[in-house]
Amino acid sequence: MNPAHIARCAQLAMVLEVSATPKPGNIDRDHNYTDTRFEHFLASAVGVYPVLEKAASSSSGVGSFIRHAVLESVRWQKGGNTHFGAFILLIPLVMAGGACGDTACLREKVRRVVKETTVGDAVELYRAFYDAKVKVKPVDDFSLGDRDSIDKIKKRGLTLFDMMEMSAGYDIIAEEWVNGFQKTFWCARMVREKIKTRSINDAVVLTFMEILSENKDTFIQAKFDREKAEDVSKRAGEILKKVGGDIEVMRSDLNAFDRELLYEGVNPGSTADIIIAGLFVALFGGMRF
Amino acid sequence: MNPAHIARCAQLAMVLEVSATPKPGNIDRDHNYTDTRFEHFLASAVGVYPVLEKAASSSSGVGSFIRHAVLESVRWQKGGNTHFGAFILLIPLVMAGGACGDTACLREKVRRVVKETTVGDAVELYRAFYDAKVKVKPVDDFSLGDRDSIDKIKKRGLTLFDMMEMSAGYDIIAEEWVNGFQKTFWCARMVREKIKTRSINDAVVLTFMEILSENKDTFIQAKFDREKAEDVSKRAGEILKKVGGDIEVMRSDLNAFDRELLYEGVNPGSTADIIIAGLFVALFGGMRF
């Protein structure tokens, strides 16, 4: 598909995700953090266009595109890191999309794009962590943003895919790379199914809750601990179970859950990243609303 | 400035405008109409990118770019006409922006871009009205979307600028074309001033209220009558006066005004178009938040 089309699908995926409300614990159209606000996410999504367009006509350079997406994102807003995790999923999807006309092709192609990443891609991603001052759990003994780590990666000849394999056990974004973007494609199907009878907002919120209930959010796990992440998923599941997917009935529970997570600073950021990737796949596949 | 930069300034202007809440009577992040929703505006702003980018590297074709912007907008969402008036202001600004490095140049250049429009541009705009099924007051005896009108325009040799001169008395968008985008540049200065001490949301809302209070909204005038438009402006002025620009104090009055206008179907659409154009100029001039 043409790169300008692909890039807009990715922009719109980011814009729709951050708009959907309430997504418990996360920034949305009605909830900001102190230094990072809804509008910072909008500006980031808009600003990153040229990197997305270029990626959509390229067959290599995953790490470099992720790094340049991060750099472009922070050039357009002062809220700091908004879409790092999302770019790690979006960039290979966008690159695959440029070579595909349908979702079946996308699924096959994105597996190949990530498999074919190089040591250079791993180095670029580490540089991106450094650029964005992202605090995440280091992979193995590679401290993020540490120049020594880059030397170690080179010495051991680790590709970006290798690094993701090492992280897949405790990071659902890395797990997506390794397992062929399973949750991403599942998310796309869910949103498309739900949008038949719901608004795009409610389709996204409900899918977010389903993903959260079925997978502990590894961003929460890294920031707090495993127990906290499991507890949040359990709570999400209880809300879904109680109301049987009727978002109107769910709304007061959702709002209470949202307030509690925001108060505790518990944000299911990885789940939001999967939603962005899933929305991209749905829009690529022709979803309109 | 480079076309990809200009196009993103325009996208972000549209996205920030529709997000700002509460903008009494208009769609915003917390208010939808029945068939047109917040997300339709987001999709339109994202979808129109390639037309904006192309316009930013062109020195002619205003009418055709407006028409193609409208067509691309409705290809990306099912909410109908979202940005017609905005495109009439944005397209010449974007074209001027592509040839300029600063705001002083932009102001000069945009005057020339609109002055140099042709009969062909007028015809294209009339075609766009037809494509978008926009209902607005016809200019003089030219019914919008009427094939006869296009023949009459050609016969009388009217340029798009001529048509805007004919409408300037009862349409503030047309007036902008004729008076050198005065309100647009004023709006840009206001937003940049207010953002020094306020969030981008509140800077936009306050500027919206100030423009509305000082100019009757001609979209309201066309839909209802002059008296209704004047009444809305008077009410906006009273709210501003009462609270001296402190948006926190203003909020309950703003919300009540908003509910009332939405209930009556009174939407200050032309004021929103000026806000978009003003935000574009501010972002073009380097505004960040």
> Which topology of chain A does CATH recognise?
Triphosphoribosyl-dephospho-CoA protein
Proportion of beta-strand residues of chain A? under 5%
Straight-line N-to-C gap of chain A: 20 Å
CATH architecture of chain A: Orthogonal Bundle
DSSP summary: helix tally of chain A: 16
What is the number of independent domains of chain A?
A: 1
What is the subunit organization of this protein? homodimer
CATH top level class name of chain A: Mainly Alpha
Q: Provide mean pLDDT of chain A, rounded.
A: 93
Given helix and strand content, the structural type of chain A is mainly alpha
Query: In which range does the helix fraction of chain A lie?
Result: 55-70%
Give the CA-based shape of chain A: globular
CATH superfamily of chain A: Triphosphoribosyl-dephospho-CoA protein
Please provide the count of β strands of chain A. 0
Rg for CA atoms of chain A: 18 Å
The arrangement of helices and strands of chain A along the chain is: HHHHHHHHHHHHHHHH
Main β-sheet of chain A: number of strands, strand sense, barrel status? Answer: none
Describe this structure in words.
2 copies of one chain form a homodimer. The first copy, chain A, is mainly α. The first copy, chain A, has one domain (3-284): Triphosphoribosyl-dephospho-CoA protein. The first copy, chain A, has helices at 3-19, 38-47, 49-55, 62-75, 84-97, 103-115, 119-132, 147-156, 160-167, 172-178, 182-194, 200-214, 218-223, 226-243, 247-264, 269-284. The longest helix of chain A has 18 residues, at 226-243. Chain A is globular. The two termini of chain A are 20 Å apart. The mean pLDDT of chain A is 93.
